[in-house]
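Input structure tokens:
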């Protein structure tokens, strides 16, 4: 079978979309090596460090038009390549499909939709961005043969917001980088702790430092509950980070928090594994990969009640309303002060998270390709 991927995010996105793209490409090609794979990306120059296996071809524009007008190449020219290479499957990994590919090629078209946050929380996006996202996502869903939703929550949103039929959507969960599957070596933990000046004992939050992630509620809970534990935040910086720093300064908590931006993936497992607790009171997620990373890292999880979080966090995690500061503080104290509860949460969480193993996910994806 000949399979093509829209791989721009795999080369140029270090966040959730990029991780999903890289993990999908690597896992499917690893467990189904007899297929041929082609990655389509407008460039590989100055890209992030994505080591493409030798059995995968990478296609970039080679003509003047494609190199100069990269968006045109990605939306129009790829359609011609799909037809030229006689691909059996083309998978858009981040909510987009090439223009008229459904009319001009015989490939089965698959598109993954991660979330519709731009429709659920329009106030977080500029009007022009919302219009572009809606246009691209709706077109992809309407022209695809199958839409992959990364969670039941996302499937429901696709049906309700985009009016896509239920029977056109398949839920295929995503996982995390296999680097989280095993414990970090002692030397790596020590090295990482020294590199980032990690506290001896800390709770952890990982994800883009933005308002939707609701990190400020964790600081408020620590203050409200007078909880004597340090707090490490790892993620891409936005203006919201200034609100966290101001709250910490105004409340004498500056020494209690550590914010780490631009941490490479290879350092994350050692940061997770040394944490006492993972706290993630996000208002909304399409999936919530950091929860999977935490459960694989054998640390207990406190996250948001409702939405996708119970799909990702399982029965062992503790769920709270994201703005209920008192309950969040109580939950943090409960986990930190009860070793038996911690051990139970860790063991049950680790057992639950095996459903997101890369081999199972690759198998589920292949079933969609073959359907």
């Amino acid at each position: 079978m000949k399979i093509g991927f829209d791989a721009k995010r795999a080369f140029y996105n270090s966040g959730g979309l990029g991780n999903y793209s890289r993990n999908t490409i690597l896992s499917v090609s690893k467990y189904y090596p007899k297929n041929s794979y082609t990655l389509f990306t407008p460039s590989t120059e100055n890209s992030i460090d994505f080591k493409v296996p030798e059995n995968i071809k990478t296609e970039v524009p080679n003509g003047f038009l494609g190199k100069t007008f990269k968006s045109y190449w990605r939306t129009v020219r790829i359609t011609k390549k799909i037809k030229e290479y006689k691909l059996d499957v083309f998978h858009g990994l981040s909510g987009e499909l090439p223009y008229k590919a459904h009319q001009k090629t015989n490939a089965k078209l698959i598109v993954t939709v991660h979330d519709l946050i731009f429709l659920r929380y329009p106030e977080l996006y500029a009007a022009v961005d919302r219009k572009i996202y809606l246009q691209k996502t709706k077109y992809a869903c309407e022209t695809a043969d199958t839409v992959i939703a990364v969670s039941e929550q996302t499937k429901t949103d696709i049906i309700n917001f985009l009016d896509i039929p239920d029977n056109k959507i398949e839920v295929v969960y995503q996982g995390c980088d296999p680097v989280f599957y095993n414990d970090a070596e002692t030397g790596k933990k020590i090295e990482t702790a020294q590199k980032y000046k990690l506290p001896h004992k800390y709770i952890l939050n990982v994800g883009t430092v933005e308002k939707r992630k609701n990190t400020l509620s964790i600081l408020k809970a620590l203050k409200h509950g007078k909880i004597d534990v340090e707090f490490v935040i790892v993620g891409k910086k936005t203006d919201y980070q200034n609100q966290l720093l101001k709250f910490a300064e105004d409340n004498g908590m500056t020494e209690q928090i550590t914010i780490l931006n631009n941490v490479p993936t290879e350092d994350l497992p050692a940061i997770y594994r040394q944490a006492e607790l993972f706290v993630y009171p996000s208002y909304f997620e399409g999936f919530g990969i950091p929860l999977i990373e935490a459960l694989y890292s054998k640390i207990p999880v406190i996250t948001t009640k409702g939405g996708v979080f119970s799909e990702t966090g399982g029965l062992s995690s503790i769920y709270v309303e994201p703005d209920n500061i008192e309950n969040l503080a109580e939950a943090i104290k409960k986990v930190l002060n009860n070793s038996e509860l911690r051990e139970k949460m860790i063991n049950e969480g680790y057992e639950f998270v095996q459903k997101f193993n890369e081999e199972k996910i690759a198998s589920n994806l292949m079933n969609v390709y073959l359907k």
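Residues 269 and 332 are 22 Å apart (CA to CA). The chain has a mean pLDDT of 95.
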